[in-house]
Amino acid sequence: MSFLGAKQNFNAIAPSTSKASLDTLKLYYDDETIIQSTEEYDLYLVGNICTNLDQQQIEKSLENAEGTFAYVLFLKHKKETVIGTDKMGFFPLYYTDNEHNFIFANFIPHIKHRLKKAEPNWDTWDELLNTGDILGHKSTIKGVSRLRQGEKLSFIKDAYSIKTFWRYEGIDFVGPEDYINLNNDLMSESIEILSANDAKKIFPLSGGHDSRRIAITAYSLGIDITAITQETFNRDLFDEDTLIATLIAKELGIKKHIKLPQPDFKTQREDMIYKDYWCGFESSQHTWAVNISKNVKKNSLIYDGIIGDYTINNHCLKDIPEYLNNYNNIDKTTSLVAPTQKKIHLKDHLTTSPLQNRIRTELKEFPLDCNQITLFKTFNHCRRNLSQWYIPFLLNGINVNLPYGYSPLFLQSLSLDIKYRLDALYQHECMLKINKAVAGIPSTRENHDARFWIGLGARKGNATPFYPCGIVASDRVFSYLQQNLKNKILDGIFLRAAPDYIQSSRSWYYEPLQRLNLFLEWLETDENHLPVLYKGKPPFIEMATKGVFDK
């Protein structure tokens, strides 16, 4: 599900599934688009919206709506076009005003296909190479931005502005008992509201707490659950996720539990490149999700729990407990978040400012209270990195449901008094109040060794393969780096002599560079001939990876 729009000189696009002209805006959209037209407005919406819209106050109604969606709203009397997403910004919407055109789309390749020239955003790549997370509004392509949480675009005539309609402004703090009780109430409310449609509901089950709590709550509400689990193997090569998910499904009496075997190495590598392409190379994580997307039917509703690990389990505080005593010191917080030493150094002239300065600037987008780092991680790491796992689902017409992103629950999840935040894993504490048996099943959030999982019967298997070794970082990529003598020798001599061994043995260093190399090749590839809302496996992937998957 997606749309693409353009203003001004952008008139030479071949017809897509459907198109509409909103004043001077040309909009292309696919079959899953929800269309609503009145005397006052035309609305085009994609995604899962769970609020009855008030036609008399349509703009405000969209701002307050719950769900994960994006929309184009044409206000006829005002002759204003509004382009936005859900207030949390978890449905992607990219835009650019490059080349005397304004173009926007849900998937970054759809914008890139229409650009005559595309260049890398080196600030973004500095962040990806060293932290894995993109900060703020940037994308991997220079001049292409992603709409932030709580923002929308407003067009009047040929001028546009960004309007902010929602920001976190601080809340009152409570103790554990009040926190847990209200959090459970709001979790039930969230799933009840977000599930109020006829779509087939798919619940991914894994070894963590977030998906388990969603399943427990849905079960308590009598929702028909179809669970799905992708076989994956941990560092000790045991599949904890399928083992734990099976125990949860059995305890809850879930009759429909789809267990997907790990694909062969060739397929996994193809899935890596496919996800990289459609995510605009913005995230290297959760490539296993591509296989799940192939096994879920169009128009289904898939649930995701990524936000809860940060807002409720306080995951980002575990490694930096000193933050709790220094949260009102922006310099200290910056030093805790920024990498102490860069893994990969781009040449200084490529970036606009040092990475630490950009991290500090992004932290200042959020109020200086004890939730600053949680908000920073939620809207940068979760929203810009982890959430890319569901891009293949959106491409295939599958909606996404984010219960922990339901705004009353999201805000209340931040209300636990700071002195209690590291006392427990509060997802687990919340589950204990609802279903002790399921809450008591072991979790990957607990520190168990290989012998523990062997004793429970976890299956042993193969590790996830490395990025295809046939994709080798080129001399051009290394020309952008500041290299010490060791890296010059490795990159200039040994990499050429034994690329498979060198790239695999130092994957933490070479895999990001392999991805950058493929990205640069993509930018130079003319894809203007592709249909406007093209989806699938593009010719670029076939061309760039020919013969490399079996290496």
Automatic annotation (TrEMBL):
SUPFAM superfamilies: Adenine nucleotide alpha hydrolases-like (SSF52402), N-terminal nucleophile aminohydrolases (Ntn hydrolases) (SSF56235). InterPro entries: ASN_synthetase/amidase (IPR051786), GATase_2_dom (IPR017932), Ntn_hydrolases_N (IPR029055), Rossmann-like_a/b/a_fold (IPR014729). Residues 53-108 form the Glutamine amidotransferase type-2 domain. It holds the Pfam family GATase_7. PANTHER family: ASPARAGINE SYNTHETASE (PTHR43284:SF1), ASPARAGINE SYNTHETASE (GLUTAMINE-HYDROLYZING) (PTHR43284). This is Glutamine amidotransferase type-2 domain-containing protein. It comes from hydrothermal vent metagenome.
